[in-house]
Amino acid sequence: MSILILLLGYLVGSIPFGLIIGKIFYKIDIREHGSGNLGGTNAIRVLGKVPGSIVMVCDLLKGTLAASLPFLLSADINPTGVAIAAILGHCYPVFANFRGGKAVATTAGALLFILPFGFLIGVIIFLITLKLSKYVSLSSSIAALSFFIYSFTADIYVQVFSLLISIFIIYKHKENFKRIKSKTEPKVSWI
User: Fold this and answer.
1) How far is CA 134 from each of CA 109, 110, 131, rounded to the nearest angstrom?
2) Rounded CA gap, 119 and 20, in Å?
3) Does 176 map to a domain?
4) Is the distance from CB of 13 to CB of 86 less than 8 angstroms?
5) Which of 19, 66, 121, 166 has the lowest CB atom count within 10 Å?
6) Is residue 160 part of a domain?
7) Is residue 189 part of a domain?
8) pLDDT tens digits along 3-28
């Protein structure tokens, strides 16, 4: 049962909302524009604020749904494991040739279920950092680190999850950091 739930979590995470919305409503693959990934930030840049925000919310909600699967299916598996499966699904989606996003919104959605107050802290830190820096990648990484620090108020599963996810999010944004250093990373204008 645990393996099936992990697989289901991966498949939920693999739903490529950026690709679906881009192709159905705009007849484009957003991976061929902007940063080239399926995440909410690229969807906002390529499709616009409203459709991009819808992508971001859908990516967040798939993280929440995946993390809640053990509860919904009365299974004895820690939600952090299913959350990791969904995050990997978002980044490497089977439904989109394994070319996905950078894990931020899906991680946030998983946190919304696993540790709601930690989610709230992460969102506040993200928004403050974004307002000050105008860099989504930097804001995402600092929010992930803030959640890791906050995770010490939770159990060991959440601590390990937050450590792994923080490292993963920072790793997924390594090219962004190079562009920030060289002053070629685009700043957001929508905040």
Assistant:
1) 22, 25, 6
2) 26
3) yes
4) yes
5) 121
6) yes
7) no
8) 999 999 999 999 999 999 999 999 99
User: If we measure between CA atoms, which residue out of 78, 88, 82 comes closest to residue 67?
Assistant: 82
Single-letter residue type at 35: S
- Both structure tokens of 75: 């299974």
Q: Which residue has the tokens 């995946």?
A: 66
Q: Please give the Cα distance from 43 to 47 (Å, whole number).
A: 5
| Element at 87 (helix H, strand E) | helix 79-91
Range(s) of the domain holding residue 99: 2-181
Helix, coil or strand: residue 25:
helix
Position 186 in a domain: no
Q: Give one DSSP letter per residue of 129-175, joined into a string.
A: HHHHH--HHHHHHHHHHHHHHHGGGS-HHHHHHHHHHHHHHHHHTHH
Work out how many domains the chain is built from and give that number: 1
Residue 62's nearest CA partner among 44, 83, 79, 76 is 83
